[in-house]
Amino acid sequence: MFPLTLHRLLSGSLLTVGLLLGLTACNDNDLQQDQFISLVVQQRFSRFDHNNDGQITASELNRPALFNRVDQDQNGSISLQEASDYFQR
């Protein structure tokens, strides 16, 4: 009787530890994915920010429809945050 109880206790503990490790690994992968996306957005943003002022204007992007979708605050320029928000959607 004792070995069966011990087996159940160990099995339950191992299952709990396995689930916690799995969830931790998923969260680490999500963070890595967010960092990767952020790097990609920064690279694309830099490619279009010809004068390196931290803003992309309509003339720099040269795609009016896309510019209007990304420029959420309609101030005539796209910030890195606006570009990041657009790519995350």
Secondary structure: number of strands: 2
Cα radius of gyration in angstroms: 24 Å
Ranges where pLDDT stays below 50 over 5 or more residues in a row are 13-34
Task: Summarize the main sheet.
Answer: 2 strands, antiparallel
Q: What separation lies between the terminal Cα atoms?
A: 56 Å
Helix content: over 70%
User: Which structural class matches the secondary elements?
Assistant: mainly alpha
* Number of helical segments with 4 or more residues: 4
The order of strands across the largest sheet is: 1-2
Proportion of residues in β-strands = 5-15%
Mean pLDDT: 74
Mass-distribution shape: elongated
SSE sequence, one letter per element:
HEHHEH
What this model shows, in words?
- By secondary structure, the protein is mainly alpha-helical.
- It is 75% helix and 7% strand.
- The chain has helices at residues 2-48, 58-61, 64-70, 80-88; strands spanning 55-57, 77-79.
- It has a two-stranded antiparallel ribbon with strand order 1-2.
- Helix 1 packs across helix 4.
- The model is unreliable at 13-34 (pLDDT under 50).
Summarize the structure.
The protein has helices at residues 2-48, 58-61, 64-70, 80-88, and strands at 55-57, 77-79. By secondary structure, the protein is mainly alpha-helical. The longest helix is centred in the first third of the chain and has 47 residues, at 2-48.
